[in-house]
Specification:
The complex is a heterodimer of chains A (116) and B (107). By secondary structure, chain A is mostly beta strands. Helices cover 0% and strands 55% of the residues of chain A. Chain A is built from no helices and eleven strands. In chain A, the strands form two sheets. In chain A, strands 2, 4, 5, 6, 9, 10 and 11 form a seven-stranded mixed β-sheet that branches. Chain A has a four-stranded antiparallel β-sheet with strand order 1-3-8-7, with no helix packed on it. Chain B has 107 residues and is mainly β. Helix content of chain B is 0%, strand content 50%. The chains are: A mainly beta (116), B mainly beta (107). Chains A and B meet through strand 5 and strand 10 of A and strand 5, strand 9 and strand 10 of B.
Chain lengths: 116, 107
């Protein structure tokens, strides 16, 4: 079964970079698409972006200038880097697998990140 | 961006009730609409994809319908394990967007 687990610091200072890792077991990240989503306090959710099986990326235009999604296929992990964070980036960050035509079908439990 | 208006935001119901949750898109999303369930501290779970396709392992009391801009999730007979938060998600066009969520609670 596909399992995803997010990890990273729970607290980041304003203006710094937020870096998260998604570790995937039970499925290779060289197939499908692998994305990041966040849920703000108050429950609004936002699609951040994703990386494909080939390594190509797609980003939410609202974040495009600040984000980078990369991967390490040897470790079956993919990563999110969000630069120049502000308090408005405080959220629970989820990683998820996307299947073409179906979108996000498996999610991690999420990691809460506070910018303060 | 496509705006997803989800209603109601809070729904109180009893075990055995039939409930419906709605999502309205600001433009046609061609049935690329998914429904997810989330319980506190858990990963979101895909229930329905592309309007009316039941994800593997999801009970048949869950169903979806709709077209164009209007979509509905129906739970035919609520079970105790169904209480939680539900949200819709459109993947017709980038950036993909979510509904604001419906909290389904025990009456």
């Amino acid at each position: 079964e596909v399992q995803l687990q997010e990890s990273g610091p729970g607290l980041v200072k304003p203006s710094q970079s937020l870096s998260l890792t998604c570790s995937v077991t039970g499925y290779s990240i060289t197939s499908n698409y692998w994305g990041w989503i966040r849920k703000f306090p108050g429950n609004k959710m936002e699609w951040i972006g994703h990386i494909s099986y080939s390594g190509s990326t797609s980003y939410n235009p609202s974040l495009k200038s600040r984000i980078s999604i990369t991967r390490d296929t040897s470790k079956n992990q993919f990563f999110l880097q969000l630069n120049s964070v502000t308090t408005e980036d405080t959220a629970t960050y989820y990683c998820a697998r996307a299947t073409e035509g179906i979108a996000f079908d498996y999610w991690g439990q999420g990691v809460m990140v506070t910018v303060s | 961006d496509i705006q997803m208006t989800q209603s109601p935001s809070l729904l109180s119901a009893s075990v055995g009730d039939r409930v419906t949750i709605n999502c309205k898109a600001s433009q046609n999303i061609n049935k690329y609409l998914n429904w997810y369930q989330q319980k506190l501290g858990e990963a979101p779970k895909l229930l329905i994809y592309n309007t009316n396709n039941l994800q593997t392992g999801i009970p048949s009391r869950f169903s979806g319908s709709g077209s164009g801009t209007d979509y509905t999730l129906t739970i035919s007979s609520l079970q105790p394990e169904d209480f939680g938060t539900y949200f819709c998600f459109q993947h017709n066009s980038w950036p993909y967007t979510f509904g604001a969520g419906t909290k389904l609670e025990l009456k």
